[in-house]
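Review form for a predicted model. The reviewer records the input and the model, then writes brief findings.
Reviewer: anonymous (R2)
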Amino acid sequence: MSGSASKPRDLNKLSDAGAVLDLEVGLREMPALPVELIAGGGPIRVQVRFGNERGRRVAHVGLDGELQLICQRCMQPLRWPVKTQSPVMLIEAESQADGAPDDRETFLAADGRVSVAALAGEELLLAMPIVPLHADIAECGVEAQPIEEPPSGEETARPFADLRALLEQRTKP
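Model under review:
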């Protein structure tokens, strides 16, 4: 079903019908993914259950798949499994975000239309690590470097040690 995930759909129809969409979405269909961190992976299995809760439009978004991220330590590919479920409040104007419950993310469905690919992309961003790194440094092929201690007996240079005294001298009348 490639391409159909990007198509904007009527939010009211989806929510009122309690629609469930189960799609495979390619990473290229998801806007706003940081291409400098993603080496490949996908497609991602996306399941979205639309509905109404407490008078608000909601989507329960499930993601399942695997990304190939770039490890920021060794700059080599890193497999990152993605499996997440998130409730999302769908809003039609930014002003509606103020009334969102604390336990819900919000997603702007401008003009009452929502793209499943954009919704999935936002949730994927939240599921990704801020700084992708291999869990074990040995996977990077880089040996941990010991922290060098200054030789005993040598005084450590402290270039800002006298800064407070200088500042106090300048503030005296």
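Findings: The first strand starts at residue 9 and ends at 10.
Further findings: The helical segments are 11-17, 116-127, 163-171.
Recommendation: see findings above.
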